[in-house]
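Protocol step 4 of 6: structure prediction from sequence.
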Amino acid sequence: MRESSELDCAKQLGEAIRSEERERLVLQSLLDQLEDAKEQVTLLTTRAVPAGTMTNVGQMVDTYEKNVEVARKSHEDAMKLVEVQREKYEAARKDRRVLARLKKKRWAVWNSEYSKEEQAASDEIAARKTSAGGHG
């Protein structure tokens, strides 16, 4: 059961990591688009252009900036989720390892006790044979 819990946590961690990577790529793409838009503004300010064009480009830059902020927040949330899932995975892994060590110790104790019982039984049988053989 602990192994399945660890496996489930590992799957969730993997999904969180892939999601974070997608969010990071989206953010990087939007940052690149914003940079391109700002370069267009710089180029347009060096020459005479219609006011409507400047307004449109300015609105485009504003939209990219808003999109970048949304993507940045989404990426931060994804990174936080990765950390939460990593902690859950580590806890499940630790639990499984602790239980495995406890099982191993319990088995060793049982085996030792069983060996003592077997030895005592063997000793008793040997003692009976010896005492029976000595009287006859």
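Step 5 (inspection) to follow. The chain has a mean pLDDT of 89.
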